Structure formats: structure tokens, C-alpha cells
């Protein structure tokens, strides 16, 4: 009876973690599509690293590890870091990649300093804050899943409400500005949605690997289609798939961290897509190339005869 109780508890924990990972993969995959199409894939890396000092400041101010409070602190810091990157690019001659590197390293260094100060205070409640650095998906609770579901759902609803505006911003920002669209406000809106997606995954995947959850599903989806609507849908599905499979694999083997396993599963999906996608896949491209060579050879032989 005691063994049955333990198994039931393990099954329930696995289900909670799998649901949380699936929700996270869905949100990050769908919103990451815009970052990939705008060639701002590294923006996710900057946001995730910039969110670290926000977590530390939120804990220092409140003394609480309530997920919603820490997520709010991470969101504010990540949002400010992203706005700083965009402002540096607009107001100076510094290139985008240089501005991103400067802000990323500065915010991340500041976050590490704050975390070291928190550890030295001896506050017993600070245990577990390190999970936001490297992630620990196995510690996800039911309240964390609710937070991911609610905030992620709001982000996806906003994306759908502004679908046409964001689509125009991604594919032709100059035309959007010429017809009177507030491109600056739309840019900030899209950045804010990306911030939400990233900070929701910090506890599960960590600041170091979260950018992969944002980019990998979208890169995989891009290999299969040229349509934005289908790409967003596929990216969400690939993200959810990686989350569930990564959780199951990590649960069947001892001492394998869930977050990195999820990222590795997403990377495998990218590799399969690059190899076997019908339109862009390397395998099918090779087959088409060989077929074209045979057709050309056949046509040449007929002409020579």
C-alpha cells in the first residue's frame, strides 16, 4: 500500500511537470516565431539574462518566493533591458549585436552580484533561487502551472488580437509605418509578449537555456511552411511536444535534469526538420537534385541521339 501511494504521488508530479512544460513550450514556441522571423533570435537570450536581477530585487524587497512576485520582477527587469537595447540602437551608432551583448552581460553580472549578496545574508528563505539560473522543472507545482497557463494564455490572446498588425510589423515594418501604424508601440508590445514567454520558463529551464525554448520550435516550424499562421501553430506544437517528451525521458532516468532534456528534445526536432522537411529539408533537396540530374542527363542523351 505504501509503494502504491509513492507511485501515485510520482505519477501526479510527472503529470503536473508535463503539463507545465507543455504550456511553456506552446507559449514560447508560438511567440518565438516572431523573434525568428525578425532575425532577433538572440533577443530571447538577452531578455532571459536581463530578468535575473529582477528576480533578486523582487526577493530582496518582499522576502517572498511566491512565483507570481518573482515572475513580475523578472518581467520588469527583462522588459527594461530590452527597451534599453532598442534605445541604444535607435539613439546611437552602436549596432544591434553590440548593444545586445553589452546589456546582456551587464544585467546578468548585476543579477549574479545580487544573488551572491542574498546568499550571504543567511536568509533561510532564499533557498531555491538558483533554480532560476539553471532551471529545475521537477520543482514545478500546481500553482506554477496555473501561473504559466494564465499569463501565457493572456499573451497568446493579445497576439491573436493584434495578429494583422504584428504580421505587418514582422514582414514589412517600413510599409506599416507609411500607412500610419504605430510601429514603435507595436515593437514594444511584441517585446513585452516575448518577455512574458521567457520569464514564465525561467524556473523550469533557467536563464541560460530559455532562449533555446523560444527559438528552437520556431526554427523547426520554419522548415515545414512559408505561412505565418501554420508556422505559429507548428512551433507551438513542437514546443509542447519537446516539453512533454523531455519530461518523460528525464523521469525515467535518474539524475537527468528536466530543463536541459527538454531543450535537447527541441534540438532533435530542429535536426529532424532540417533533414526531412519536404520543402527545405536537406534529404529531400538531395533527392530533388539527383532527380534533376537524371532528368537532365536523359534529356541530353536524347538530344545527342
Can you give a write-up of this model?
The protein is mainly alpha-helical and about 300 residues long. The protein has a single domain, classed as ABC transporter involved in vitamin B12 uptake, BtuC (Orthogonal Bundle), CATH 1.10.3470. Helices cover about 80% and strands about 0% of the residues. It contains 13 helices and no strands. Helix 2 packs antiparallel against helix 10 and helix 11 packs across helix 12. The longest helix has about 35 residues. The chain is globular. It starts with a helix and ends with a helix.
Distance between the termini: 84 Å
β-strand percent reads under 5%
Integer average pLDDT: 82
Helical/strand content category: mainly alpha
Helix content: over 70%
Number of helices: 13
CATH topological fold name:
ABC transporter involved in vitamin B12 uptake, BtuC
Short description:
The chain is mostly helical and 305 residues long.
List the helices and strands and how they pair.
Blueprint: H1 2-37, H2 41-62, H3 67-91, H4 96-120, H5 131-134, H6 142-161, H7 163-171, H8 173-178, H9 183-200, H10 210-222, H11 228-252, H12 258-276, H13 282-304
Helix pairs in contact: 1-2, 1-6, 1-9, 1-10, 1-11, 2-3, 2-4, 2-9, 2-10, 3-4, 3-9, 6-9, 10-11, 10-12, 11-12
Amino acid at each position: 500500500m505504501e509503494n502504491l501511494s509513492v507511485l501515485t504521488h510520482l505519477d501526479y508530479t510527472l503529470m503536473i511537470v508535463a503539463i507545465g512544460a507543455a504550456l511553456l513550450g506552446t507559449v514560447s514556441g508560438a511567440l518565438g516565431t516572431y523573434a525568428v522571423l525578425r532575425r532577433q533570435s538572440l533577443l530571447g537570450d538577452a531578455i532571459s539574462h536581463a530578468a535575473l536581477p529582477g528576480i533578486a530585487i523582487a526577493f530582496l524587497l518582499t522576502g517572498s518566493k511566491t512565483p507570481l512576485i518573482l515572475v513580475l520582477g523578472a518581467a520588469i527587469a527583462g522588459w527594461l533591458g530590452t527597451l534599453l537595447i532598442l534605445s541604444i540602437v535607435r539613439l546611437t551608432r552602436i549596432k544591434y549585436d553590440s548593444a545586445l551583448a553589452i546589456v546582456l552581460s551587464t544585467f546578468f553580472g548585476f543579477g549574479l552580484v545580487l544573488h551572491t549578496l542574498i546568499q550571504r545574508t543567511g536568509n533561510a528563505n532564499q533557498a531555491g533561487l538558483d533554480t532560476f539560473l539553471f532551471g529545475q522543472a521537477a520543482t514545478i507545482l500546481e500553482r506554477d502551472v496555473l501561473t504559466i497557463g494564465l499569463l501565457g494564455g493572456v499573451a497568446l490572446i493579445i497576439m491573436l488580437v493584434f495578429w494583422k498588425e504584428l504580421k505587418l510589423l514582422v514582414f514589412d515594418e517600413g510599409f506599416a509605418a507609411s500607412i500610419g501604424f504605430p510601429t514603435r508601440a507595436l515593437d514594444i508590445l511584441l517585446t513585452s509578449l516575448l518577455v512574458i514567454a521567457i520569464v514564465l520558463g525561467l524556473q523550469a529551464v533557467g536563464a541560460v537555456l530559455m532562449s533555446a525554448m523560444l527559438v528552437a520550435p520556431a526554427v523547426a516550424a520554419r522548415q515545414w511552411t512559408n505561412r505565418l499562421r501554420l508556422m505559429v501553430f507548428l512551433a507551438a506544437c513542437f514546443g509542447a511536444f519537446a516539453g512533454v517528451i523531455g519530461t518523460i525521458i528525464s523521469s525515467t532516468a535518474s539524475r537527468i535534469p528536466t530543463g536541459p532534456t527538454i531543450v535537447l528534445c527541441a534540438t532533435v526536432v530542429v535536426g529532424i526538420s532540417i533533414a526531412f522537411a519536404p520543402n527545405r529539408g536537406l534529404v529531400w533537396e538531395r533527392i530533388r537534385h539527383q532527380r534533376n540530374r537524371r532528368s537532365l542527363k536523359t534529356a541530353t542523351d536524347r538530344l545527342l541521339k
